[in-house]
């Protein structure tokens, strides 16, 4: 028993060491960006050292001021005004559509689901021009309404597919028991199904939050006013507004911008991993 315990301990220690090394390798770009925020241009390009020679918050302070009259407080406010409603609307619309596909039978169900999955293969470059033309006719350009509308109308088939896969793993007996107790379809969804869907909903929310938060192309196409810019557009604007780029300041603002995503991922990591695992294995 002693020898077995020792072997098990050695294996556990080695496993943690391997995981720690892989984790450091994956986190190294973020660490480098953080320490580069304290460096000058000469130090960034003239040295391979990770640590800075001296530490000052000047780059963070100057970077936060942004360009022109707007600070990054405005850009962050714009970003959350865009990202949070889009994430919530995506969850609501995708859940309703996924519930319909997973639990109900209706004409052309398989054909419609196949068509839905086929839209995953459409590149954004193919649909961006028709979308822009349509939204321009509606007068939605330079607003956040195009993003809200796409989320509210369940235009993200990846999340629908993921939620359908998860719903297929939930026994139908629960629905039947709820119907016997007098629940309707909507009440069954709200009180029985949704609590069981927490892992997949957390995964979908995290994906959508990250993708919308990082989205540069669509924000550039549909948003024209600087006062409505998100952080992704603001970072690019700070590059264009300077003749001599202070890369330390750029690294400082980049680290501040990416920090919410890092914190969100680690806080929701348990549900994220569980949702991905179960969505992939069931159905």
Automatic annotation (TrEMBL):
<dbReference type="InterPro" id="IPR035906">
    <property type="entry name" value="MetI-like_sf"/>
</dbReference>
<keyword id="KW-0812">Transmembrane</keyword>
<comment type="similarity">
    <text>Belongs to the binding-protein-dependent transport system permease family.</text>
</comment>
<keyword id="KW-1133">Transmembrane helix</keyword>
<feature type="transmembrane region" description="Helical">
    <location>
        <begin position="113"/>
        <end position="133"/>
    </location>
</feature>
<feature type="transmembrane region" description="Helical">
    <location>
        <begin position="244"/>
        <end position="266"/>
    </location>
</feature>
<keyword id="KW-0472">Membrane</keyword>
<feature type="transmembrane region" description="Helical">
    <location>
        <begin position="188"/>
        <end position="211"/>
    </location>
</feature>
<keyword id="KW-0813">Transport</keyword>
<protein>
    <submittedName>
        <fullName>Oligogalacturonide transport system permease protein</fullName>
    </submittedName>
</protein>
<feature type="transmembrane region" description="Helical">
    <location>
        <begin position="12"/>
        <end position="35"/>
    </location>
</feature>
<dbReference type="Pfam" id="PF00528">
    <property type="entry name" value="BPD_transp_1"/>
</dbReference>
<dbReference type="GO" id="GO:0005886">
    <property type="term" value="C:plasma membrane"/>
</dbReference>
<feature type="transmembrane region" description="Helical">
    <location>
        <begin position="145"/>
        <end position="167"/>
    </location>
</feature>
<dbReference type="GO" id="GO:0055085">
    <property type="term" value="P:transmembrane transport"/>
</dbReference>
<dbReference type="InterPro" id="IPR000515">
    <property type="entry name" value="MetI-like"/>
</dbReference>
<feature type="domain" description="ABC transmembrane type-1">
    <location>
        <begin position="76"/>
        <end position="268"/>
    </location>
</feature>
<feature type="transmembrane region" description="Helical">
    <location>
        <begin position="82"/>
        <end position="101"/>
    </location>
</feature>
<keyword id="KW-1003">Cell membrane</keyword>
